[in-house]
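User: Assemble these into one structure.

Assistant: Restating your components, then the assembled model:
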Amino acid sequence: MTNNADKGLLIVLSGPSGVGKGTVCSMLRKLAPELVYSVSATTRSPRAGEVDGVNYFFKTKEQFRSMIERDELLEWAEYVGNYYGTPRSFVNDTIRAGKDIILEIEVQGAMKVKQKFPEGVFIFLMPPSLGELKNRIVTRGTETDDSIRSRMSVAVDEIKLLEHYDYAVVNDQVESACARIRSIITAEHCRRERIMPYVNSWMEEVR
Amino acid sequence: MTNNADKGLLIVLSGPSGVGKGTVCSMLRKLAPELVYSVSATTRSPRAGEVDGVNYFFKTKEQFRSMIERDELLEWAEYVGNYYGTPRSFVNDTIRAGKDIILEIEVQGAMKVKQKFPEGVFIFLMPPSLGELKNRIVTRGTETDDSIRSRMSVAVDEIKLLEHYDYAVVNDQVESACARIRSIITAEHCRRERIMPYVNSWMEEVR
């Protein structure tokens, strides 16, 4: 037995908009090639170079609606006239194969995933401070004072959702945040509940 | 804020006799010099080269008994006519200074520590299999079949105590076990409960 003998984990990486989820995930793809990244289903058309099953699972609206009806999505949402969602089967197949899968998602989606997949490991990416989050929002684009205020107010509401997560990783530096996420995954594989079944089977042997 | 902004952790490293706690701890001292190692109190005489406060806190029996009475020990035991115990103050001073402290201890002692310090992180070092544990006990010395059987029976009883621990680390290779322990410490610093107070204070600010 090793600490990676069993099923994989679903790691849900979320956090307020502007915190740097995308940047952290891109770095993680380079640093941790052993992790699988969740592939979304969408009804939008493929763009040049996008491959079905790699960038997205491309679906018709009819197909997508029937996935919703059959409860085949861990979460879904409509955005600018198209559907986007997380197929449950891709997640399940990956963890059954003993691999860990990462799902990067905004906070509302993460809360829906938690309802359908509470055994996931929920990681909240945090800004080092509210001031720092404001800096990141300001330097991102050419926002007006009003839109910055409204984005900050949304971010503050999103940060309140931290209470529903297992872990908070401060994104002070991208590399440090990635190292913390990898440590969390390793530690979760060491949780007593995951090793207990092996020990119980040993006890059967010696009885 | 970073993920190491707050108090340190008490990490209790235990496991059945013969599993290699001492070897893992020695390697950890080399790999993780940032960790503090708990210093025991004892009534036995210092040996050549042993320094008070470094190898042990050397106490008279009278001093030790008064530490017991004043509840100044997280656990204690008598062994071959001498007392040994874990001073609570050394642990508390270390974590208050923001440093993590490791206590390597046999399973009975760990269970006593858990009663007095339930907020500790309890890690159980596991053999990869019962067969492997037997090999380690056999190759250790010139034990008779009877004593091997009796040591194995004790080890099996000790392994049952895993259910009281937070984590199980399989000691398949010393370096891997050390890496898992370090990941657990990092992950514990990222637990939501440890970050939540900062976020609550932010929310006070913006209100």
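Residues 174-189 of chain A form the longest helix (16 residues).
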